[in-house]
Amino acid sequence: MKDLRRYLALKYIQYLVLSSSNGVSTLLGLLGSVYTMILLQSAKVSSKSTAVLISSLAQADILVFLSLVSDVVLGSFGAGISPTASALARILLTANAHVSCVLLSCVAFEAYLITFLPSESRPLRTVRNARLISKVIWMLVAAESALFLMDDHLRASSTSAPSRGPLGLLFQLSSAAAALLRSLSYILGILLRIINVYIYYKIFFSMSPR
Prior knowledge:
Keywords: G-protein coupled receptor, Glycoprotein, Membrane, Receptor, Transducer, Transmembrane, Transmembrane helix. By secondary structure, the chain is mainly alpha-helical. It is built from 7 helices and no strands. It has helices at residues 2-17, 23-40, 49-59, 62-77, 83-116, 127-156, 165-207. The longest helix is centred in the last third of the chain and has 43 residues, at 165-207. The radius of gyration is 20 Å and the shape is globular.
């Protein structure tokens, strides 16, 4: 449907074109996600793997809403909030961006399969597989967010953190793992941008009149 294509275009601009999010794109993204979740409940939208991926993409903006609520709470209570709680809003936004970027790439890859390998890829493009992929993505990002939250908590309490023993080793390992994961996330983000541009470049020219 045209509305779903417009929503995907908005999300691609928000997460894979803009260098950083801003208030306008965030608000438009939230409104688009609410509208899309309502639209996907309609009987006019067939239950296909692409619809499952788009539904999960729209649901990811719940994290943005939770982040905004967290900011309001932090602004209301001020210094009474712990450093760990103050990092929660940022981690929720990071999780939303990572889930959205990977899901958008999955949609792009599926579009590539539909365009160039429609019959060969049909056994793979099932609702069951799309749901499984969405669950795996959410689980991986949830684990990433837990690691970031633990690292921020340990950094906030670094003055009292032990430098030796099991707790000191835990602090060093979590800090190194979080730093490595942040670096990999940045590299992966660049690769996803390149791959998405290539996929839609191929699709566009394959559908252009010769």
